[in-house]
Design goal:
The chain has about 150 residues and is α+β, with helices and mostly antiparallel strands. It has three helices and eight strands; from the N terminus they run βαβββαββαββ. It has a domain of about 100 residues: Molybdopterin biosynthesis MoaE subunit (Aldehyde Oxidoreductase, domain 3), CATH 3.90.1170. About 30% of the residues lie in helices and about 40% in strands. The N and C termini lie far apart (about 35 Å).
């Protein structure tokens, strides 16, 4: 069952306790044999001699919500999943903090692993989310996805 209005965006960093709680909630679902987890963490890249200390994420929210729904629906049609959760940060996230959390649960590991990898790639390519890198001197530049 797909929930169209599932909340994807989180203000600021995604906290480890939140991630742990989301995993813990799945212990009652006894048909799950595998969870695949992806955590996107802000790196302190060195760009032209300046260290990235944070990324400020923004999004075209209405379009992003629709895109996440589209991705979720396509993945549920393609893979036999039990659960699928996607959370992405908005606002400032410091280097070392989590900005993307994807949790995929399935009966078997192969489907969980494949679905999670596809979700992450589709988010990076399709979702209208932008990151502005913030340097130690508070200067900024738009992040280039790789």
């Amino acid at each position: 069952m797909i929930q169209k209005n599932k909340k994807v965006f989180v203000e600021g960093a995604i906290q480890p306790a939140f991630i742990g709680d989301e995993i813990l909630k799945h212990q009652t679902k006894k048909n799950i044999g595998a969870h695949q987890l992806f955590l996107g963490q802000v790196r302190n890249d060195l760009i032209q001699g300046q260290e990235v200390i944070a990324i400020d994420y923004s999004a075209y929210l209405e379009m992003a919500d629709e895109k996440f729904h589209e991705i979720r629906e396509a993945i549920f049609k393609k893979y036999p999943l039990v659960c699928l959760h996607i959370y992405h940060s908005l606002g400032r996230v410091k280097a070392g903090e989590i900005s993307l959390f994807v949790l995929v649960s399935a009966v078997h590991r192969k489907e969980a692993i494949q679905a999670c990898a596809e979700i992450v790639e589709r988010i990076k390519k399709e979702a209208p989310i932008w990151g502005k890198e913030i340097f130690g001197d508070e200067s900024t530049q738009w992040k280039k996805n790789t």
